[in-house]
Amino acid sequence: MSDRLPHEKGFHVSWDQLHRDARALAWRLQGHGPEGGWRAVVAITRGGMAPAMIVSRELDIRTVDTISVKSYNHQTQAEPVIIKHPDADVVGDGTGVLIVDDLVDTGRTLEVVRAAMPKAHVATVYAKPKGRPMVDTFITEVSQDTWIFFPWDMALQYVKPYHGTDD
Ligand SMILES: O=P(O)(O)OC[C@H]1O[C@H](OP(=O)(O)OP(=O)(O)O)[C@H](O)[C@@H]1O
Ligand SMILES: Nc1nc2[nH]cnc2c(=O)[nH]1
Ligand SMILES: [Mg+2]
Questions:
Q1: Which 3 state secondary structure label does DSSP give 119?
Q2: Is residue 163 part of a domain?
């Protein structure tokens, strides 16, 4: 995360909120697939896996695969590389395939994913302005200087009361 700082704001997403937003994404996608419906979901690991599970459940899509993209740092420029492809027999050129990720930020990850499946439909739960053109469907936009905190990266912890003492 350090190479992506500074971020002025934080947007904290609870499991409950993530569930609601991923369901809203599924609702928006329902009926918008090609004739015959969506054939498969491809989750972009790892952040896309929880949203993809929720979307595939809501839309009753049983064929779910993954694509793994790793961002390598070469002199501060992050260069995403696909380190695991989905099953070619399942996805083909992407027709009828729903690619799901938690968010788009710069759009670099989706650039390489789209190149691998040009005809797929790309859906993210959250989007930042720079990456928006890379997404077909999303639910909530946040500003570019906002860092989104996901529930799998967080834990409940004690917070000091405003009045300054611990009891
Ligand atoms: O639009 P971009 O600037 O490419 O950023 C968006 C990507 O960054 C995060 O994944 P990350 O690479 O951190 O890996 P993870 O999903 O395994 O946490 C996020 O889950 C998106 O996949
Ligand atoms: N968790 C998280 N990962 C990211 N990867 C790129 N942008 C973000 C972000 O805002 N939050
Ligand atoms: Mg990711």
A1: coil
A2: no
Ligand nearest to the CA of 110: 1
CATH number reported for the structural domain that contains residue 53 in this entry: 3.40.50.2020
Is residue 1 assigned to a domain?
no
Give the C-alpha distances (Å, rounded to integers) separating 111 from 13, 32, 39, 96.
25, 22, 22, 19
Atom of ligand 1 nearest to the CA of 80: 4
Domain for residue 38, yes or no? yes
**60 labeled binding residue:** no
The pLDDT value given to residue 127: 98
Ligand 1 centroid, distance to 148 Cα (angstroms)? 11
Please tell me whether the interface predicted TM-score (ipTM) of this complex is above 0.95.
yes
The reply to whether 105 belongs to the active site is yes
